[in-house]
Specification:
2 domains; globular; D-Maltodextrin-Binding Protein, domain 2; 7 helices; single chain; alpha+beta
């Protein structure tokens, strides 16, 4: 068993508890797809419910830590140097359409640096996690980025704009958190996206770095307007050159 910090242990337990609600509601969403009303209102309730569970669980032991979350925004508690960064369902549109590709994302920012990250895909039961200077893991297996050096052999992910811009082998999965987790695990060779939110990428950015990849300095951007570039070391320079006009 990998040795993990108490903070990461709390994150894992919170994600596991919240995932039960997601899995149950996802089954309902699949049924709602064929109804006239559609699942939009239901998904909004799921997002808020998952966020509530995560905040409650993370606050049980670390009572003074602050929060930054997609749904409620900032919650400033006594300790403003330690901030939980949460995306209750990253890949909400996939969830909304009954597509089983979404994740819970939790990161811990301490003194303006991401020190712990977790991305949990509840449908595939894949728990990605990392801590600063301790590596990145998927269900206790150490992760390493791809070693491919030819861009033609690589597979990349981005959003709609990124896919349109690039003539490389591209995917648009709809979940930035899982895209970055896939870069960390070598499934994708890189990920890039402009004007994205911190809660979408905080955990994943640490994961890529801890699995041997390179991520640009996201701290120089505002929290809801980040341009991220995350690649394996073997192709980082080539991709930065490839994307200089993006």
């Amino acid at each position: 068993m990998i040795s993990i910090s108490s903070n990461l242990n709390i994150m894992i337990k919170a994600a596991e508890k919240a995932s039960k609600s997601i899995i149950r509601d996802f089954g309902e969403v699949e049924k709602l797809q064929v109804s006239k009303k559609g699942p939009k209102d239901f998904v909004t309730k799921t997002d808020k419910n998952v966020e509530k569970i995560l905040i409650e669980e993370l606050s049980k032991i670390k009572k003074n830590y602050s929060f930054l979350s997609e749904e409620v925004g900032k919650i400033n508690n006594k300790d403003r140097e330690n901030i939980w960064i949460i995306d209750p369902i990253d890949g909400t549109t996939n969830f909304l359409h009954g597509i089983p590709h979404f994740a819970i994302s939790i990161a811990l920012q301490s003194n303006k640096e991401i020190v712990s990250g977790l991305i949990f895909d509840p449908i595939k039961d894949e728990m990605y996690y990392s801590e600063k200077d301790k590596g990145a893991f998927l269900n206790n297996q150490r992760l390493r980025v791809s070693k491919k050096s030819s861009l033609d052999d690589c597979l990349f992910s981005s959003n709609h704009e990124g896919v349109k811009f690039s003539n490389l082998n591209m995917r648009y999965s709809g979940s930035a958190a899982l895209d970055l987790a896939y870069v960390a695990s070598g499934r994708f060779d890189g990920y890039f996206h402009n004007k994205i939110n911190l809660w979408d990428i905080a955990a994943g950015a640490l994961m890529v770095k801890e699995s041997g990849g390179i991520v640009n300095d996201i701290n120089k951007f505002s929290i809801n307007n980040i341009d991220i570039r995350a690649f394996s070391g073997a192709i980082n320079d080539k991709m930065l050159e490839n994307l200089k006009n993006f």
